[in-house]
Amino acid sequence: ARSCERYIPYLLFNNVETGKRKFNEEYLHFLNILILMLFPAINFIAVIFKFNASTAFVYYIFALISFIIVLMRFNYAEAGAYKRKIDQPIKLALIFLGLFLVWAVISTFFATDKKLALFDYAERGEGLCMYFAYALIFVGAFNIRSQGFKNKLLFAFQIFAIAVCVFGLLDFASFQFGEKAFDWNFANPWSNPNHQAYFFAMVIPLSAVFMCFAKDKINKIVSIVSFTLCNFTLCLNNSFGGELSVLVTLILFVILGLIKDKSIWKMLLLALGIFLATNALGYLVQVTCIKDAPTILQNYNEFLHDVVRVFKYIFTGNAGDSGLATAGTGRWGLWYECFKNICSHPLFGIGINCQTVVNPNLASSRPHNELLQFASTMGVPSLLFYISALVCLCVAFARKFRTMNYKTFGIFFACVGYFVSSLFGVTLPYTFVYHIVFIGLLASSLNVQDDVS
């Protein structure tokens, strides 16, 4: 660590007073995470200039930067220059996340294909190496204590979400109506519009909170624009998983938002009006321009029909002539394959990234449910560690509910939006990295020993 510090430019690490060194370290964390926030728009530019950007490669660069920072932190801890008190629920959340990573390592030794479990390739972005990259990115986000840095990151996230929408809508307009809605290249770094929808599932709740609670005009205007464009683009994406996630998260936000501050009811009505208007406009565009795809109303109708089929099966053992294999646009069948893996390998799972070997009949070799994927590939203990960490963060959230600022409130709902979308979508690796960033920022902001005012 001391050797690394010696060769870092003097501008960032200038062994003077302790406070300066701590600030510079946090500034590096901020720059590292900021690049992540900017990556969606950067990737669009790369596509325009015909440069094939690899999502996994970029993540590895972040991991390397974070690793160097972590090495330097040992030097600070040894010198007693950087001490931080951590509240008990946050400490437990960190322990459970650590156990989740440890169990991922252990499960790799029992994987069906150890090479697949250890290393990934760019198209899938899975493997144990990527989990270490996520862990290091979390370290960077958690160690951003300055509210000013957090504000800049959240503002950048919304700005570049707007850029994503603008590029996507231009892409939509660049093709003849009725033939193609979104070019697959311009859905990068999500590989297709459905994965992009899970990104919107985080942006929209965050923007909703900011537009309702923000006092400064710039923040409020940017949040309204982000909320409007992301809702409209999501509707055109025709990804029902993302739409359902947004609906569930916004309902929860309305309830908790009114409990926290009843004076925001006017802004909540505005948010509801924008949500209904953008969905109505999106429906009209779907009906007019996208002839061969189901509309948002048809998606809701199919969803309700599938729910009835599931409950019918639970209570009568019969789901109808077609069974449940096609329920949830085929997701029930994928989940059933995962349940078989969990029953046969409950402790260590089949191995990260090993669905291609064990379940080649799985669409994309993924169950489209992140919780089932953790349990299936790394064993039930990994799922319990992950859920326990989230529960601890929810406990910390409940304890600070009345006193937390609206930025922390928004970060929480970005995490909720992701979690709901992860129950029926492919979120690894497309949006999981943003979830890791928000989990780190949330844990940092909810730590009662830190100044989050």
SSE layout and pairing:
Blueprint (H helix, E strand, L loop, with lengths): L1 H6 L10 H31 L6 H25 L8 H22 L4 H5 L9 H15 L4 H27 L19 H21 L3 H21 L2 H21 L4 H25 L6 H21 L14 H14 L10 H4 L11 H9 L1 H20 L6 H17 L9 H15 L7
Helix pairs in contact: 2-3, 2-7, 3-6, 4-6, 4-16, 6-18, 7-9, 8-9, 8-10, 8-11, 8-17, 9-11, 10-17, 13-15, 15-16, 17-18
Give a verbal description of the structure.
The protein is mainly alpha-helical. It has 18 helices and no strands. The longest helix has 31 residues, at 18-48. The chain is globular and about 55 Å long. The model is unreliable at 1-23 and 76-82 (pLDDT under 50).
The string of secondary-structure elements, in order, is HHHHHHHHHHHHHHHHHH
Number of strands: 0
Structural class: mainly alpha
Could you list the spans in which at least 5 consecutive residues all have pLDDT below 50? 1-23, 76-82
